[in-house]
Each structure stands twice: as C-alpha cells, then as structure tokens.
Design brief:
This protein has helices at residues 2-5, 40-49, 84-92, 107-120, 131-139, 199-213, and strands spanning 13-14, 18-19, 27-28, 30-34, 53-55, 58-62, 70-76, 97-101, 145-152, 169-178, 182-190, 218-225, 240-244, 247-250. The chain is of the alpha+beta class. It folds into 2 domains: 2-68, no CATH class; 73-250, Gcn5-related N-acetyltransferase (GNAT) (Aminopeptidase), CATH 3.40.630.30. It is globular and about 60 Å long.
Length: 253
C-alpha cells in the first residue's frame, strides 16, 4: 500500500472504547481513516481487501484490545452454487424488478429504512437515524457507489398499462460500492412486512448474479462474528472466504 500511495499515505486514527454492538459486555475500538480526493477510490479498494468497511467518507476496522471476533468475509462468485433454499427464495421473488440508480435518497426509501430500523434494530447505533443522517450515509461519498432499488407491482394492479419502474412498490434497497474485483454491500434494508420473502438473502443472491455478469470475483459482506445470530446468515453463502493473519482463505464454518 505504501508504494501505491507514495507520499500520500493516509493518516489513521483510533476511536475511544465504546460498547460492542455484537458481543454483550465487550468494548469496541476502531481504527479509521478518511476517503477523500483523487485517491479515495483506490484507497477504498485497498482497505476493503485489508478488512476495512466504509461508512460515508470513512474507512474503519475493529481494533479491539484482546478481541478479534470481527472477521471480514466475502463470497467467491465463480465457485458459488445456489442451494435448494436459495432457489426457492429466487422463485418467491421472480416478480421483483431491480434497477441501479445514482446514490440520491428519496422519502420512499427512508420510509422503508425507518420501518426496518424500528422493527429489526431498536436500540442499535442507527436506531435514531433521521432523513438527514440517511442522506449523509448515501450521498456523502467520494468512491464508486450506487443504490439498487427492488420494486414489485402493487397487488391491486390488475390489467391496464404496465407500470413504469418508479410507479411500482418499493420493497428493498441496497447501498453498494463497486470495487476493482467485486461488489461491497455497504448497507441493505427491506420492508419487514414481507419477512417471509427473505428479501435480505435475495439481495445478496442478486449481488452474486450481478458480479458474475460484470466478471467480478467477489461479493464483500462485511464482518462475521461467531456467536452473533444476526450474522449467521453470511455463512450460508458457500464458498465464503475470511480474512485472517495469512490473508484470505476459506472459512471453516
């Protein structure tokens, strides 16, 4: 990384300890740096490969004393094979239409996000998110990022002229970075009233399909923490690699 960025090597900082959102009774610290200027895109690539995650114009990585539970994971696209349950989820969502759009927020998106946070992440770090916070999360970025909207025709729409994409019902959204070798899922959310549709899993499967179409090797899923039930779903997407002391290797899970 030093050779790549030369005299513009980024400065890193360390946060003060705070309650860990994944493991009860633990404290977390993060090392972070800013993503800005002409080097933001290659820096985001390099740091993602090194186990960092992006939030707005910050790249961060856990740096907790005495704990290394947060493990970066990524799906190996070329080797991924859809299981019976994954094929069932795809079939359940055949009528969904997905479209890549610029990273610009809408009230419709925020309404879905607000319901998702209230239902799934009460008391979490994002539970008090306002529309301005959401705008900052999506629009304040110096890297190659975009949104994917997932929409379906309303149940009441029978016959008549086909609806334009924007007229269909929004059910899920993903904020995604395009890296040199893959797609990094920064954040995704969905209508919790459609929990039986497994929309969170469907969005991951859609990212795998998009990566194949673009000849990209990986889908980066962020951190996996053993024993954290909210993250168990990530290990279902086999083969999955984890970043360890010797680099990326298959996760034995």
């Amino acid at each position: 990384m030093t050779e790549q960025f030369g005299t513009h090597f980024p400065q890193f900082y360390l946060t003060v300890p705070a309650p860990c959102p994944y493991l009860k009774g633990h404290l977390e610290r993060k090392v972070f740096t800013q993503l800005q200027g002409g080097l933001a895109i290659p820096l985001n690539d390099a740091l993602t490969h090194a186990g960092f995650r992006r939030s707005q114009n910050i790249a961060y990585k856990p740096a907790c004393e005495g704990c290394d539970a947060c493990i970066s994971v990524r799906i190996v696209v070329d080797e991924f094979r859809s299981s019976r349950s994954f094929r069932r989820i795809k079939k359940q969502n055949l009528e969904l239409e997905a479209r890549v759009i610029p990273p610009v927020i809408t009230e419709e998106q925020f309404s879905i996000l607000r319901g998702y946070l209230d239902e799934r992440h009460t008391g979490g770090g994002m539970s008090d998110m306002t529309v301005l916070d959401y705008a900052t999360m999506v629009e304040d970025s110096a890297v190659n990022t975009f949104l994917i909207e997932y929409r379906q025709s309303p149940a009441c729409a029978q016959g008549g002229q086909p609806l334009a994409f924007e007229e269909k019902e929004l059910v899920a959204v993903a904020l995604t970075d395009r890296l040199g070798d893959g797609l990094s899922m920064v954040y995704s959310f969905y209508d919790t009233g459609l929990a039986d549709r497994s929309l969170g899993t469907y969005m991951v499967l859609d990212h795998v399909a998009r990566s194949r179409q673009e000849d990209l090797s990986y889908v980066y899923l962020g951190y996996w923490v053993a024993g954290c039930s909210k993250m168990d779903y990530k290990t279902r997407f086999k083969p999955i690699e984890a970043l360890g002391a010797q680099g990326w290797a298959p996760l034995d899970k």
